[in-house]
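INPUT
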Amino acid sequence: MSSKLIAIVAGVGPGTGASVARKFAQTYPVVLLARKPENYEGLAQEINQSGGKALGISTDVADSKSVKNAVQKIKEEFGNDVGAAAAIFNASGGFLRTPFLELPEDVFTTSLKVSANGGFNFAQAALPLLLKGVEQKSKYPPSLIFTGATASVKSNAQMASFATGKWALRALSQSLAREFGPKGVHVSHAIIDGVIDIPRTKEWLKDLGPEAKLSADAIANDYWWLHTQPVTNFTWEIDLRPAIEKW
Amino acid sequence: MSSKLIAIVAGVGPGTGASVARKFAQTYPVVLLARKPENYEGLAQEINQSGGKALGISTDVADSKSVKNAVQKIKEEFGNDVGAAAAIFNASGGFLRTPFLELPEDVFTTSLKVSANGGFNFAQAALPLLLKGVEQKSKYPPSLIFTGATASVKSNAQMASFATGKWALRALSQSLAREFGPKGVHVSHAIIDGVIDIPRTKEWLKDLGPEAKLSADAIANDYWWLHTQPVTNFTWEIDLRPAIEKW
Amino acid sequence: MSSKLIAIVAGVGPGTGASVARKFAQTYPVVLLARKPENYEGLAQEINQSGGKALGISTDVADSKSVKNAVQKIKEEFGNDVGAAAAIFNASGGFLRTPFLELPEDVFTTSLKVSANGGFNFAQAALPLLLKGVEQKSKYPPSLIFTGATASVKSNAQMASFATGKWALRALSQSLAREFGPKGVHVSHAIIDGVIDIPRTKEWLKDLGPEAKLSADAIANDYWWLHTQPVTNFTWEIDLRPAIEKW
Amino acid sequence: MSSKLIAIVAGVGPGTGASVARKFAQTYPVVLLARKPENYEGLAQEINQSGGKALGISTDVADSKSVKNAVQKIKEEFGNDVGAAAAIFNASGGFLRTPFLELPEDVFTTSLKVSANGGFNFAQAALPLLLKGVEQKSKYPPSLIFTGATASVKSNAQMASFATGKWALRALSQSLAREFGPKGVHVSHAIIDGVIDIPRTKEWLKDLGPEAKLSADAIANDYWWLHTQPVTNFTWEIDLRPAIEKW
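OUTPUT
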């Protein structure tokens, strides 16, 4: 791999984040951000052993200092002039589906912080690297992709602690798409409308068959497709759902 | 005035908040919440002197303790069993229209806190009183109204510090409308799409004539209309703009 | 009644159309358009006998000649200079909820014609009268209101024959709002999201209680409210649903 | 080429239609539908001479008989059991950007007929072939893709003759996505938000540089990407615009 450009994935876990990291690691050195080392260590090892390059950094996206520290470590590893070809924000805070009057303030606040402040911190850290990717004439337009959910466009009863942050993140991505598209950075937002097939959801929707859940690897392919769109044909938003999903 | 039900207006200033307070004060005792006493003192005096009843309380909606303290003062004044006929959230944090990479973190955070956390804190404080209003068979369904803006549905370049909070607030209002409508509380969201005619905007859009700006008193009438809708005909969302506004 | 301005209601039947006609007849002479005389005769009689003025005209809104003929009759009755204070489009074609491949072409075509071509024909006929209302300085900005449905914003499986026309009508109303707002005509669109309580739906949703259906009279009040908004505060769109409706 | 499945493209001209046809012709025999033979003859010849297979059929999508006749010719050529892997609706009627009261009825009607009735006719003709594609276990889920425009989601002043049909078509595509997704057919809608770079638009936006217009070939790539999504990850809608486009 000779690219001097890197890909950064925030919110690496056993699902979409890992699949996206593996996919982009086929072309770029990847930086894996997650709060807990156990969320990226195995994956980094796997990528490094199979011919790719991965660097994991413990990072709390909701904390701007932690994100700035991650950028510092990226520069130590890849040089001060490092540019990014892709930055993917895949983090989500915990939330509770509960009657609103029983929703603890800290659950609401924490969830909002990960999605909204986390999105802000990550974008402020990644965009200078993505703009360097533009300067360095990356093969594909540098991409900033945000992972959304059904709750990014529909705010159901008892879902306020999740939807507020997701709507805020969608607003952020739309504003950035309008500001940074003309500067050559491709900002996208993906509405993941369904259950993703990961170990944690193994028993979910079983009676609906193997096609009832989204494939995380296929989401990664979709993100890669977004990444390869030329500057004349940028997609801001896609929705993704299993064919059998009701919507 | 014999109503035992009150109306609460958060975010009282010289514009919409004051007009809404005056309108609802014709029927209900009103509680005026603003951070600074100078934003409610004159208005409270005006209402109290003209036959209404108003109570101003210094409150920072972004701070849940401050909001809980306001509820405590409301109960001291109106009794522990006080119910609310209406609660209007009209607060907005400051924001900057600026290139995203020059946006200070604290501007983003503060603006988001007022809109999103403020909306949360206000709703958690007001809904128990509004549900008491339902129990006490208020003449009109108790109403929780959120003030939005153009930026509630469109997130323009360089407007991330305003739009993220406004989208989050809209998500909150939609979730609450779905949860509390069936309990008899009418939750609404108003998209104010244009400049409001207040002292601060006196010189704005002057060349477009006197009809280029929204009337704050007319917004208050619209909120009153929402408040008087029967339980069979709830409107969640209205947009409001001057006839000559481009959109 | 001394107003020289009239109100026109297209799509008069036993529900919303009749309620709207009665409401506006308290202020304006009303013209009632429906394909079949039995849909307006009783109502016209009722209004004429209770101190109002109503003129019924058999009209097929899907047929531009029929609509032009109605305008001719209006001018014969009210004079060539007659202006309109309000024009309400409440017509809907029949449709079938059926698997798409079993949907007869003529059902699709007829439904689309009533909503889309009907909306077009009605707007082209009414707008010159509404602009005369502006010239004649009507008390309230002349209003052109379109009745929409859940299917105006959501197109469910098997509902193509209804939704296509309703989306087209919403598009028409939005385009007209943008063009004629600056000319002083208030164009609105109402999303009626639920079952309206009319004789035909008497047995529907009975187990949910008396508040499960929209009140047609309350819809008429909402339309009247839209009509009375000042030129500084136009609402393009409202949604309306029973408090207990799931959405 | 050994596929027994075909691709059908309606609305073949010098732009998107031709690019899509060339792209899908690399894998499938393609059927080219256009009203005028000059719109498909050269393209069919080009594809047939370069190792692909193309069949052009003069078809007016607004006329259901003409569309049925095309299906008849397809079966004569490819057999009664022919299945389709893809069907792309790319037709648009002429329209006028003009003050609404000067818009001739026949312009409105014709434009609506091509988009709305045309979409209906094409979908009723293509879906049985696409369902055969499902039965015949096509490599990729059979795809029905509709081409939309900015005017599919925004209805500007003076644009009613274009937007009504485009909104109707979007409604059709959404209803079909919900009905036929569970049957294995992937229905999509693409919002083309900008000027496409074709001979007719050669002189447009020249001062903005070569990246100001959408590439038709890149649109074709995007449609191919939609086509290859697995059944667990269907996208209903994408938007596409040049990076520098204001939106």
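end of record. Chain A has a mean pLDDT of 96.
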